[in-house]
Amino acid sequence: MPTYQYKCDECGYEFEEFQKMSDAAIEICPECKGKTRRMISGGSGFLLKGSGFYSTEHRSESYKKDAANDAPNKAIETKSSSDKKSKKSSKKKKD
What we know:
Blueprint: E1 3-8, E2 14-18, E3 36-39, H1 61-94
Antiparallel strand pairs: 1-2, 1-3
């Protein structure tokens, strides 16, 4: 059941009411007994955008493949940078 928002045209009082969709709109303000109107609200929808995640919170197969392809490249870059550091430190030790 949705929660509807109402606003009084007379006093400006705003309130929410938890109702069935088939229930009639509330026409009388609980504060001043003036005329009310149902307001349009944005709702509370939850959206996930992008190619990585889905509403089930599992990664897509294409993302997993891309990540697997990137992983070895990162390891090679890390090794080569650590090799350069060790070579530099060994040169300093020789001097």
